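Please describe our next protein:
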Amino acid sequence: MLTFAALLVHGYHPAAEDAEIYIPGIKKLLNPALYPFGSEFFLNHARLTQFERLIAATIRISDLPFDLVVFAWYVLSIFLTLLACWDWSAECFVEKESRFAAVVLVAALLTLPVAGTSLYIADQYLTPRSLALFAMLFGAHAAWRGRYLRFGAWSVFAVLIHPLMAVFGITYGLLLAGMKQSAEGTKTQPMWCLAAFADVGLLPACTDAYRAAVQTRSYFFILQWQWYEWIGIFAPLLLLWWLGRDKRKKQPPAVALVSRALVIYGLFYFMIALLLTIPAPFETLARLQPMRSLQLLYAFLIILGGGLLGKYVLKRHALRWVILFLPLCAGMWFVQRQLFPMSPHIEWPGVAPSNNWLRAFEWIRGNTPSDAFFAIDPNYMLSDDQHGFRAVAERSRLADAVKDSGAVTMFPQPPLAEHWLEEVTDQRRWPAFKAADFYRLQRKYGINWVVRLRPAVAGLSCPYENEELLVCRLD
């Protein structure tokens, strides 16, 4: 029930934002004929993770519709995340109201932004992060309990699904296990030493094209964060430091120890961020985004904060629970509606979209050949509620300036960045394009379809149109 409540609060948008990277990878595994052009912008990610293969295998085995399976995995990821939070709340608190408050607060704040990382605690769509989060929480809990075989299993799963986020979870699990052993006076195992980014192969040369792409991602560079995003680093650390002191032993021992470990963990990755994102020679290492370690820290902070609220404030007074959680959930719901104003709050599987962009993309999927090659405004994701063309239309397109630039930043080795910059540069004057400009793109890249805003452009045949868009064929 709590999982369903979280879905109602935060919504579901299966093709939004980073889904434009991961959903095409799944679809190409199921149908290799898709995306004959430009697939390098998402396949590089697919080679680093087993996420796409896991979802594709589930679809093949279950023989269920694609959208339904993705939705089921998304709901399962929320359920398992909340279950992992319940395990931790039971570890930290005795009172049932404290445990329940901890998990309810996590459910209410799943789409809380994590400082300046461009992450939420959990996304409104399925990505590898959706699975890595509960794996990190379960893994850390296993390490806390001294169940190292289970910790290893969860760590391997996390590495296979999202190698970068797995590093953060493994680091915290090792640190927590070592600190607990030290506190209990048992022999400290060498396993708790902190992990670091030490692969020299991670430091390729920074080309001009790669530099142009990485500069579109200000959140990579901690000195470019806004002042309030810096508060998002240090305010949680101060709260955790205060909880970790607990000289009068007011809190359960687990709360203090977990908090102290989180402070060390947070400061460690803050120092790594300073090292990797400030010196110019390390520009290509900024893509490792060490401050994304805050996602796990925020999850634990909410668990601890919710448990303490339940213990000292909410207790068993129903009215207090309503006064806290009703406005909080309403506020989170309202924010999500502002982020996706043109789309239903929950995009249920199998339901026809009302968003004009998605309607056009679905027409393309059903009425154009699988090898059709499209050009579309390189900034289109800023206009369509951040929904991805490849994810919905299942067709190739030229590189865009919003999502493909992010994919490029993770792979600085040429020629990916050079291809991206050339294609985006050739589309730079898109709003003023005439028929001759589209045919110029056709001669250079081989595109044969165009998606553009109304009004119509003379010289183009457009077999589909709606109130906002035209889909035109280049003869």
Q: What stands out?
A: Confidence is low (pLDDT under 50) at residues 189-193, 195-201. The first helix runs from residue 2 to 10. The chain has two domains: 64-316, 356-473.
